[in-house]
Design goal:
single chain; alpha/beta; five-stranded mixed beta sheet
């Protein structure tokens, strides 16, 4: 992947994102990292302990079903806003962001910056029109082949590695329900971790 990158673009956008994160930490903007992911009813195999020479095997009967995830990661609170839906319906994610962070949301209103890659879902005519209808939202476009700049990728990795790994789900509905509860648990743990860090800093 790194061999296909424009290193100048990656360095330039990386610097812009560091500045954006500083703005978000100061409370001047809301910075969100958005992207899609997929989960399967068949097990995701993560690192695990096993006897030397033994293969990790998990029963996976039938045909795997796929669930599309869409989400946004808040750069400051580290909370993930996620939903399971058709991957092409990116407008639904924008509506969720508007409800939580837009002009009509409760709480302090700040300019919203959404970090996105140049995938076809994000650059379609439908998405372009939806973005244009939200002048309070600015998009920070990532260079091609640079997923390491999108911090929500780590949240998707944690979700699969710690909540979905080594499990087989009965069907897509079972998987969706598990994802929903997992995101709630992830956010609660991240909030608790931040609170503990704040207390240590104050001490």
């Amino acid at each position: 992947m790194t061999g296909r990158q424009d290193r100048d673009a990656v360095d330039r956008i990386g610097l812009r994102l560091r500045l954006r994160k500083a703005q978000a930490a100061a409370g001047d903007i809301t910075l969100l990292f958005g992207d899609e992911a997929e989960a399967l009813t068949h097990p995701y195999l993560a690192q695990a302990w096993a006897r030397r020479g033994a293969d990790l095997r998990i029963q996976a009967p039938g045909q795997a079903q796929k669930v599309a995830l869409m989400g946004a990661l808040d750069a400051v609170t580290r909370e993930v806003s996620a939903r399971t839906k058709r991957s092409a319906d990116f407008v639904a994610l924008l509506e969720m962001i508007e409800h939580r962070y837009g002009p009509e949301a409760s709480g302090p209103i700040r300019p919203v910056v959404l970090v996105l890659d140049n995938g076809p879902v994000h650059t379609s005519k439908l998405t372009t029109k939806a973005l244009a209808a939200r002048p309070w939202l600015t998009v920070e476009w990532l260079p091609k082949h640079a997923p390491e700049l999108n911090e929500i990728e780590r949240a998707w990795r944690d979700l699969k590695r710690h909540y979905l790994a080594h499990r087989t789900f009965a069907d897509a509905n079972d998987l969706q329900a598990t994802i929903h509860h997992a995101v709630i648990t992830m956010n609660r743990e991240r909030t608790q971790t931040q609170s503990c860090d704040s207390l240590r800093s104050a001490a």
